[in-house]
Automatic annotation (TrEMBL):
Keywords: Amino-acid biosynthesis, Aminotransferase, Histidine biosynthesis, Pyridoxal phosphate, Transferase. It holds the Pfam family Aminotran_1_2. GO terms for biological process: L-histidine biosynthetic process. Belongs to the class-II pyridoxal-phosphate-dependent aminotransferase family. Histidinol-phosphate aminotransferase subfamily. It comes from the Bacteria. The lineage of its organism: Bacteria, Bacillati, Actinomycetota, Actinomycetes, Pseudonocardiales. PANTHER family: HISTIDINOL-PHOSPHATE AMINOTRANSFERASE, HISTIDINOL-PHOSPHATE AMINOTRANSFERASE-RELATED. Pathway: Amino-acid biosynthesis; L-histidine biosynthesis; L-histidine from 5-phospho-alpha-D-ribose 1-diphosphate: step 7/9. Homodimer. Its EC number is 2.6.1.9. Residues 33-359 form the Aminotransferase class I/classII large domain. InterPro entries: Aminotrans_II_pyridoxalP_BS, Aminotransferase_I/II_large, HisP_aminotrans, PyrdxlP-dep_Trfase, PyrdxlP-dep_Trfase_major, PyrdxlP-dep_Trfase_small. This is Histidinol-phosphate aminotransferase. The modification N6-(pyridoxal phosphate)lysine is found at residue 231.
Length: 366
């Protein structure tokens, strides 16, 4: 029995507003086919692994020193990648990086949210947005999407203008539903917002739509575009998220970030991964084609499938989504119950994994 186990959570002087909450987290189960956390199914190449190892070996000799606190070289590399993929001339001053985009989002709410402030999101969406709001004591203001999970932009802009939240989250493509928001619609929303608008583009590389980065020149005082290397970049284990914004936004985040938050190991591994971007992102086209194949096959089996331009698909309708999730698991396929009635979400995997998922889908039925 671990030391101190006689004390329970309810015995601790926990903040009242955290009592009764459950931690975020999908089950991490050892199952043959894991399609539940929207990772890239392809591991890093042997070349990339060798480069990471060599870089780590080099910095290992300097681990007695703190890393570059402002991660300047990494931010330069991120700026070069994002500038070349969006055509917007970004520099390191426009980029900020942290341990996953979750930490980016947390820093944003630490700086622009907090007690007495409000953040608004269009639900269902990424469930960490309200959790990070809770952790930073930012009041959460949920706003529903249409029944088909699309965003009614006219209505959304009205609500944003009316409630005047300090921070608005727009997830594009939206997790867990899959659709993205056109830049013209984002413009309407940002125009209506009095405060900060965070466009969470964790899945941008899988989408054929333009990035919100194109709007930074027009809305430097409002817009923050958040990105991650966890998905298309196949770097989920490396933990590297980033944002693009006006340099003043980065100045704001410097006030709340912990010093040396990005380890020297993280910084060099992420830079090595960025040098292999072309190779890694080569899998994106294949995954997009596989996504379309999965969508079509599911529809062929009689499922309702929500259109997606990300690397996952939301589908239903299940009388009992929880039971269906368990049934997939019994077939060796781990997918995600995202808490949307009648629906489950599957991440697009390798062709073999997708075949296994589709075979299980035939068995599970609706
Ligand atoms: N935003 C969205 C929309 C996501 O789906 C995720 C991961 N599930 C994240 C942010 C955070 O990912 P990470 O911290 O790995 O960058």
């Amino acid at each position: 029995e671990p030391v101190g186990e006689r004390v329970e959570l309810s015995d601790l002087p926990l903040r009242e507003d955290l009592r009764g909450r459950t931690p975020y987290g999908a089950p991490q189960l050892d199952v043959p086919v894991r399609l539940n956390t929207n990772e890239n199914p392809y591991p890093p190449s042997a070349d990339l692994v060798a480069e990471v190892v060599a870089e780590v070996a080099e910095v290992a000799g300097e681990l007695h020193r703190y890393p570059d606190r402002d991660a300047v070289a990494l931010r330069e590399d991120l700026a070069a990648y994002l500038a070349s993929s969006t055509g917007v001339p970004l520099t390191a001053a426009n980029l900020w990086a942290a341990n996953g985009s979750n930490e980016i989002l947390q820093q944003i709410l630490q700086a622009f949210g907090g007690p007495g402030r409000t953040a608004l999101g269009f639900e269902p969406s990424y469930s960490m947005h309200p959790i990070i709001a809770a952790g930073t004591r930012t009041e959460w203001s949920p706003t529903p999407r249409r029944a088909d999970f699309s965003l009614d932009v006219g209505r959304a802009a009205e609500i944003v203008a009316e409630r005047a939240p300090d921070v608005v989250f727009v997830t594009s493509p939206n997790n867990p539903t899959g659709q993205s928001v056109p830049v013209a619609d984002l413009k309407v929303l940002i125009s209506a917002a009095p405060g900060i608008v965070v466009v969470d583009e964790a899945y941008a590389e899988f989408s054929s739509r333009d990035s919100a980065v194109a709007l930074l020149e027009e809305f430097p005082e409002k817009l923050i575009v958040s990105r991650t290397m966890s998905k298309a970049f196949a770097f989920a284990g490396g933990r590297l998220g980033y944002l693009a914004a006006a340099p003043a936004v980065v100045d704001a985040l410097l006030l709340v970030r912990l010093p040396y938050h990005l380890s020297a190991l993280t910084q060099v591994a992420a830079r090595a991964s960025l040098r292999h971007a072309d190779e890694t992102l080569g899998s994106v086209a294949l995954l997009a084609a596989e996504r379309d194949r999965v969508v079509e096959a599911l529809a062929g089996l009689g499922f309702d499938v929500v259109p997606s331009d990300a690397n996952f698909v939301l589908f239903g309708w299940f009388e009992d989504a929880r039971a269906a999730w368990r049934s997939y698991l019994e077939h060796g396929v781990l997918i995600r119950d995202v808490g949307i009635a009648g629906h489950l979400r599957v991440t697009v995997g390798t062709p073999e994994e997708n075949d296994a998922f589709l075979a299980a889908s035939k068995e599970v039925g609706r």
